[in-house]
């Protein structure tokens, strides 16, 4: 009785933690968090369906949501999340290519399920096997992606990601393999039935619950700390670019194109210039620009532009009779959009205010 009470408390606690993890990720305006949030929602839905099965079994809303949050999506969603981490971005068509086939399979299964009364058991086995195989296939794809990432050393995945990724895959792979092994009991060979029964019995008796609990503990903990608006306070990013590797491999031609353009064409004078626009103007891939920013220690593209704007302001003030111009007017001509931004950036870069700088050169 006590053990059952303890299990109930544990399950309710896991539901609460997963719900919080889902909420904080969906509040983050980042597609990577939305993908992770979807993975969490699948785990949450599967857990709720298991805990409250008797109460939800006749619910039309529950039956409508089943195709959207089926365990069938564990493999592809985890892989998509891994891609978004390593590539730092992901295209909608990539997400669609991996998820759409499983959406179609899932919806078809639940739509025609009531019509398959005679073959209901067989259809469940086929549906489950598709999900199990997808977990294994996407685990292999993920392994190859990570191996490739390690070989080019372009990104470094932090330890907390590996705790999450390993624990999730241990649970998913074990569950998939045991599910596949369990289907051997339906093969009319006594030997395969005995082996399948023995392995399944051992797994469900001794391994399933601790692996599942560890999975449900690590998943919300990792997911909560991945929310952009929380992560900045107490953890570092999950994947970072290897600056040493980038510094050694950054094309000198790219650096020259960017620096000469900014020096001679002075495109930083345009207040609304974006990195996408700049990439097209100078015909340099946006990823190369990002790598340039990292190597040169700029946090973002705006910081790069502001650096050149400050230098332009200093040059103009030194060369002209600045007493005839307002500092704000000069700063606007240099590309700054507001007085507050100009004063803040100038102070950060030069260690003094624009007025102090002007006073110093006037002496």
Map the helices and strands:
Elements: H1 2-26, H2 31-51, H3 53-56, H4 60-65, H5 74-87, H6 92-112, H7 120-152, E1 155-157, H8 159-182, H9 190-225, H10 228-234, E2 239-241, H11 243-249, H12 252-265, H13 275-282, H14 286-295, H15 301-319, H16 327-333, H17 339-350, H18 354-362
Describe this entry's structure for a reader.
This protein is mainly α. It has two domains: 2-239, Rhopdopsin 7-helix transmembrane proteins; 242-362, Homeodomain-like (Arc Repressor Mutant, subunit A), CATH 1.10.10.60. Helices cover 76% and strands 2% of the residues. The chain contains 18 helices and two strands. The protein has helices at residues 2-26, 31-51, 53-56, 60-65, 74-87, 92-112, 120-152, 159-182, 190-225, 228-234, 243-249, 252-265, 275-282, 286-295, 301-319, 327-333, 339-350, 354-362; strands at residues 155-157, 239-241. It has a two-stranded antiparallel sheet. Helix 1 (2-26) runs antiparallel to helix 2 and helix 7 packs antiparallel against helix 8. The longest helix has 36 residues, at 190-225. It is elongated. Residues 242-247 have low confidence and may be disordered.
């Amino acid at each position: 009785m006590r053990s059952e009470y303890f299990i109930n408390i544990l399950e309710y606690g896991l539901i609460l933690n997963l719900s919080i993890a889902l909420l904080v990720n969906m509040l983050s305006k980042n597609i990577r968090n939305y993908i992770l949030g979807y993975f969490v929602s699948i785990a949450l839905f599967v857990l709720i369906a298991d805990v409250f099965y008797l109460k939800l079994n006749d619910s039309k809303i529950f039956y409508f949501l089943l195709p959207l949050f089926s365990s069938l999506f564990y493999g592809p969603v985890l892989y998509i999340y891994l891609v978004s981490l390593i590539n730092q971005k992901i295209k909608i068509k990539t997400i669609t290519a991996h998820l759409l086939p499983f959406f179609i399979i899932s919806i078809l299964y639940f739509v025609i399920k009531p019509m398959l009364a005679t073959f209901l058991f067989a259809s469940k086995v086929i549906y489950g096997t598709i999900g199990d195989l997808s977990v294994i296939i996407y685990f292999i794809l993920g392994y190859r992606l990570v191996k490739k990432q390690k070989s080019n050393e372009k990104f470094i995945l932090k330890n907390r990601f590996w705790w999450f990724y390993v624990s999730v895959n241990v649970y998913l792979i074990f569950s998939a393999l045991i599910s596949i092994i369990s289907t051997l009991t339906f093969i009319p060979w006594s030997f395969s039935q005995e082996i399948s029964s023995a392995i399944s019995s051992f797994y469900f008796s001794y391994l399933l619950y601790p692996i599942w609990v560890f999975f449900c503990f690590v998943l919300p903990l990792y997911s909560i700390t991945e929310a952009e608006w929380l992560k900045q306070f107490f953890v570092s990013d999950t994947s970072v670019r290897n600056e040493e590797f980038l510094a050694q491999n950054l094309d000198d031609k790219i650096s020259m194109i960017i620096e000469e353009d900014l020096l001679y064409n002075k495109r930083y004078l345009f207040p609304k210039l974006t990195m996408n626009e700049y990439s097209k103007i100078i015909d340099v891939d946006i990823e190369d620009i990002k790598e340039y920013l990292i190597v040169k220690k700029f946090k973002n593209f705006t910081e790069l532009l502001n650096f050149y704007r400050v230098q332009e302001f200093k040059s103009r003030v030194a060369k002209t009779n600045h007493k005839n111009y307002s500092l704000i007017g000069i700063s606007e001509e240099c590309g700054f959009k507001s007085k507050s931004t100009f004063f803040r950036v100038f102070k950060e870069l030069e260690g003094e205010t624009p007025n102090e700088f002007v006073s110093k050169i006037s002496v």
